[in-house]
Amino acid sequence: MLNKNDMYFGKSEISVKWIEKDFYTCSVSHQGLHYLQNITKCSACQSSFEEPVVDLTLPSNEDLLNGNAKIKCSVRISNLDVSQVSLKLNKILTTKIPSFEVDNTLKNTYTATFTVSQDEWKGINTVTCVVKRPCTSIPAEVSKEIDVNSPADIRNLYDDDGGEELGELEEINNVWTTTSTFIALFLVTLIYSGFVTFVKVK
Questions:
Q1: What 3-state class would DSSP assign to 73?
Q2: Any residues with CB less than 8 A from the CB of 12 and at least 6 apart, and which?
Q3: Engineered SS bond to 109: which of 58, 83, 103, 138, CB 3.0-4.6 Å?
Q4: Each residue's pLDDT expressed in tens, for the chain with a length of 202 residues
Q5: Sheet-wide strand order for 109-116
Q6: Are 121 and 59 spatial neighbours (Cβ–Cβ below 8 Å)?
């Protein structure tokens, strides 16, 4: 078909699924000539991309004492893939692969859980959840600092070899148990002596 400038033009609409591919190519042949034009997901759908909402949950003290330290990155966005979520420890990107699950209680919410060993946790000062965003090299990040001087930080209270502080706590518990037993026996003896004296006087 010719337009008003005597140039050929045509139009063909094809439905595509961007979830399957990142780009498509339109190919046109006319009078022995071939033309190719690519269209990418980013150029076609830039305005429709969501900004991920990221939340970071650090291990609880109970989990740390049980040697079950887990760091959770919760992300609210549609169509998230596990490859988009990674973890930084002390601002250094790790190669840890998380377990991945869909939150059935919140729409479009995913949780990536990273496991950290006790030895690793002792050296961590900063934890960061990293989520790749489409069409940009700048990821979404959420970080939390760990205050090693806080009473809530109990990283030094456990040790695979039996930490010094745990040993001190155990020693205190043993002393208290012995003292309690001694006091109880003393009271029993005192009561018994008083009872015997009362009987003799009577």
A1: strand
A2: none
A3: 103
A4: 556 666 666 777 777 776 666 778 888 887 788 888 888 777 776 666 778 999 999 998 888 888 788 999 999 998 888 999 999 999 999 999 999 999 888 888 999 999 998 888 888 999 999 999 877 888 999 999 987 665 445 555 544 444 455 455 556 556 556 666 767 676 767 676 655 555 555 5
A5: 53-57, 69-76, 109-116, 99-102
A6: yes
With CA atoms as reference, report the closest residue to 67 among 17, 117, 101, 6. Answer: 117
CATH of region 50-157, choose from 2.60.40.10, 1.10.390.10, 1.10.8.60, 3.40.50.2000? 2.60.40.10
Q: Where are the chain's structural domains? A: 50-157
pTM given for the model: 0.59
Task: Compute, in degrees rounded to 10, the torsion defined by CA atoms 61, 63, 67, 69.
Answer: -100
